Amino acid sequence: MAVDLAPPRLSLRLVQVWRRNLLVWRKLLVPSLLGNLADPALSLLGLGYGLGSMLPAVDGVAYITFLAAGIVCYSTMNSASFEGLYSAFSRMHVQRTWEAIMNAPVGLDDIVCAEIAWAATKSAFSGLAILLLIWVLGLSHSPLTLWLVPLTLLIGIVFGSFAVTMTTLAPSYDFFMYYFTLFITPMVLLSGVFYPVSALPSLLQQIAVALPLLHAIELARPLVYGRVPEAVLTHLLVLVSYALVGSYLAVVLARRRLLK
Amino acid sequence: MLTLQAVRKAYAGREVVRGIDLELRQGECYGLLGPNGAGKTTTLRLALGLIAPDHGSIRVLDQPVPARALEVRQRVGVVPQADTLDPDFTVAENLVVYGRYFGLTEREIRPRIPDLLEFAGLESRADSAISALSGGMKRRLSLARALINDPALIFLDEPTTGLDPQARHLIWDRLKRLVARGKTILLTTHFMDEAERLCDRLGIMDGGRMICTGTPAELVAAHIEPQVLEVFGEGAAHWMERHGTRLCRRWETVGETTFCYLHDIQPALDALGGAAGLRYLQRPANLEDVFLKLTGHELRD
């Protein structure tokens, strides 16, 4: 059977699917907050002060200040990934929530895009919690850090769309380990979360340029330092392209899996 | 209400719906009867516009499907075969969240909830978790959820599969009430008693084809002798050889049971009188016999 390759057909009903996920999140707020917010906060504090106490200044700032932007992007990406993988897979496959919604007048394209939007929303909460910590710890006082708010949403859409794409391909939860081991973890090590990309061999630096997380961090880090990032348009273009391609793939592959 | 004309659908080269015609009238309960794999669920998915037919045309509530599937689903209720209730929500929350998918606001949905829960026999359960409900309660809640948009047409995919007899009777009672209120129902089932009890008209499906349609009584009268004698046990084969083939008009053997079809049962009963090593059961003909005759195999599988 030919797969429907048309662009996503969206309607305002996707808001109601997004609201469904928001309502569940509100009901499970406490464990959700611990997992999504406390965990990256502890990483920032532990690595930032612990490891940072043994390290010289990076980029002319304390290590924890350098690390902060990396952790904002990293935790946003992680949160969007978990939501788009494990949680979305539960709703698609285990609980058959998508099936129930499709019996109502809501299209699958709306459901998939609502899942991506929800993953982005939830992950933005994660990124914002780290931003709050950055302010509280006094790592940055620049109003430019407010730009991190829309940036975390964009990062969330990118990685939420990748994750939902994986979900539409997954036979079971075990499948997601490949995604983390083969894609997410190497990307984290190449994109300058924990150390500057300039510390990498030049071949790896060239590979890293293709990775979305690198571009997210290239935007976030100067903002934390209180500077306007260089080549803003290029980085944004890369991230938006990944978001569009990821969302399109998620929609098309979901149709292939479910509308047959 | 619903018209399917010469509808065909294939998956990976295998045709699972092979030219179905179907016409539903306002206010009737229509049953698609057939074994698993007959194409019943695929037919429902086609009618909902979730999948597109390879050939043929579909109209539901005067709209072409799948072209206007979303408009159609706005006015249709669906009770799926599997439990798709939201386990993270209470009973009432399930109804509110589902109603929003139809564009209803919580303010519009809340006043409908008491009636729906009463209809489902779940009045005291508004705040229960889904995990606290029995299988029958979950199915009734699925039915209530399908009514949230006050649909004109309701699809039910095997509404009582997996339920105990008491729970099945409760579902049947609710479906009869819906028909009495003027709703049109299309259900699939592989239970002959369910089809016979509930449905005004039936289509019997097998291997992706509609092999016959009509009221339950019409189907039995058109295809089957009125009386059935089921003969089984060690001596059954011997008795069939000696008397059965002479006294019965027609017979089918499935497993170790021989189904004898007759217009007048008395001579066969007389001949059974002295027979050793066999048991028998006499009953009027039913849909299962129609199915057995037309397909050569039993309905349940």
How would you briefly describe this protein structure?
The complex is a heterodimer of chains A (260) and B (301). Chain A is an all-alpha fold and 260 residues long.
Description of the molecule:
The complex is a heterodimer of chains A (260) and B (301). Chain A has 260 residues and is an all-alpha fold. In chain A, 73% of the residues lie in helices and 0% in strands. Chain A starts with 13 loop residues before the first helix and ends with a helix. The model of chain B has no long low-confidence stretch (mean pLDDT 92). Chain B is α/β, with parallel strands linked by helices. In chain B, strands 6-7-8-3-9-10 form a 6-stranded mixed β-sheet, with helices on both faces. A 4-stranded antiparallel β-sheet of chain B has the order 2-1-4-5. A 4-stranded antiparallel β-sheet of chain B has the order 12-13-11-14, covered by helices on one side. Chain B has 12 helices and 14 strands. Chain B has 2 domains: 2-218, 3-Layer(aba) Sandwich (Rossmann fold); 225-284, Alpha-Beta Plaits (2-Layer Sandwich), CATH 3.30.70. The radius of gyration of chain B is 22 Å and the shape is globular. In chain B, helix 6 (135-146) packs parallel to helix 7 (165-180), helix 9 crosses helix 12 and helix 10 runs antiparallel to helix 11 (266-272). The interface between A and B is medium-sized, with 25 and 29 residues.
